[in-house]
Design a protein that fits this description.
The protein has 14 helices and 11 strands. The chain is of the alpha/beta class and 323 residues long. It has 2 domains: 229 residues, Alpha-Beta Barrel (TIM Barrel); 67 residues, no CATH class. The strands form 2 sheets. Strands 1-9-8-6-5-4-3-2 form an 8-stranded parallel sheet. It has a 3-stranded antiparallel sheet with strand order 7-11-10, covered by helices on one side. Helix 11 runs antiparallel to helix 12. The two termini are 29 Å apart. The structure holds ligand TUI. Ligand TUI binds next to strand 7.
């Protein structure tokens, strides 16, 4: 289909057909999903946030058996065994590593020396500038419309400021699930986008059907941010667990509960939701754009739809000037 269109610094640098990354969502982004996305011409990413180093090693080998295209691994930097995970991606010569929830500075040289492209998620201009000094390959500027652990700024204000102040290709993330969103991100100066929530509803995504169903049912106001009061903001679908956060956080602010109690509310809850389908009492992380995701279809169809929608959206926007 739309081959030849939408070439950017991102398609060029990462040897992909379309400027789309799939978010490396912990527990959700397995080798099956990553390989399906890569086979369809975007960049599939394995989420290592839920994995031991042995599990990650297996998952990378599985992805290699399912695709010959480039793919990535997302490393959640808060994990205690992050050093071991770094070793695994280096030994397996994974083409791309994205990082989240911290500063990957200490690991960049080692990853780059192994020929791995490094793309950190940055929630601010300051961190993006620091990453520029480490000579990373691009940054993912993620606004607080994203699902899961988020920074304070929206995608709309974060992207143009990072684009202006940093001389690196910018991938926009947070609140993007359609071609219109991709077109808007390109207009803000991004060279590509990362989508998470939309790919949870890919046929090849192995998340529990109840998790997918919860996203399909979501409306515009279905997501809320938990953990704000303790400095760990996490965007999730509103459910019983989110309600409990709301009550307990109020009590925490009144001095009636400890920070540790709030922290413990979330422990193991993402796994419960994604793998067991516990969508009322588990943590159903999803982006604020969940309301627009209303069908399950193969990754290839998602990607082709987003790309052709983006092309049309850009043409329509130009038409507004020409008549
Ligand atoms: O990492 C994410 N999203 C995530 S991680 C995750 S697992 C988790 N679950 C519960 C609590 C915490 C984590 C679920 N969703 N997105 C990328 C992201 N990175 N968002 C925010 C950041 C970030 C924050 C601070 C990146 C760098 C950073 O740097 C601080 C510093 O060291 O300067």
């Amino acid at each position: 289909m739309v081959k030849g269109m939408l070439k950017t610094k991102i398609t060029e640098k990462f040897n992909i057909e379309y400027p789309i990354f799939q978010g490396g969502m912990a527990w959700v982004a397995t080798a099956e999903l990553a390989a399906a996305v890569s086979n369809a011409g975007a960049l599939g990413i394995i989420g290592a946030g839920s994995m031991t180093s042995e599990m990650l090693d297996k998952e990378i080998k599985k992805a290699k058996s399912l695709t010959t295209k480039p793919f990535g691994v997302n490393l959640m930097l808060l994990l205690p065994h992050i050093e071991e995970l770094i070793e695994v991606v280096i030994q397996n010569r994974v083409p791309v590593v994205t990082t989240g929830a911290g500063n990957p500075g200490p690991f960049v040289d080692r990853l780059k020396a192994a020929g791995i492209k490094v793309v950190p998620v940055v929630p601010s201009v300051a961190l993006a500038k620091r990453m520029e000094r480490y000579k990373v390959d691009a940054v993912i500027a993620e606004g607080n419309e994203a699902g899961g652990h988020i920074g304070p700024l929206t995608t709309m204000v974060l992207i143009p400021q990072i684009v202006r102040e940093v001389n690196l290709p910018v991938i926009a993330a947070g609140g993007i699930a359609t071609g219109e969103g991709l077109a808007a991100a390109l207009c803000l100066g991004a060279e590509g986008v990362q989508m998470g929530t939309r790919f949870i509803c890919a046929t090849e995504c192995t998340a529990h059907p109840a998790y997918k169903e919860a996203i399909l049912k979501a409306k515009d106001r279905s997501t809320v941010v938990t953990g704000q009061s303790i400095g760990i903001p996490v965007r999730v679908l509103r459910n019983k667990l989110a309600q409990r956060y709301e009550v307990w956080e109020k009590e925490y602010l009144e001095g009636k509960r400890t920070k540790e109690e709030i922290e413990e509310l979330g422990v193991g809850m993402l796994r419960k939701a994604v793998r067991e389908g516990e969508v009322e009492n588990g943590s159903v992380m999803a982006g604020a754009i969940a309301g627009i995701v209303n069908e399950i279809k193969p990754a290839r169809e998602i990607i082709e739809e987003v790309v052709s929608q983006a092309e049309l959206a850009l043409k329509k926007a130009l038409d507004k000037f020409n008549n």
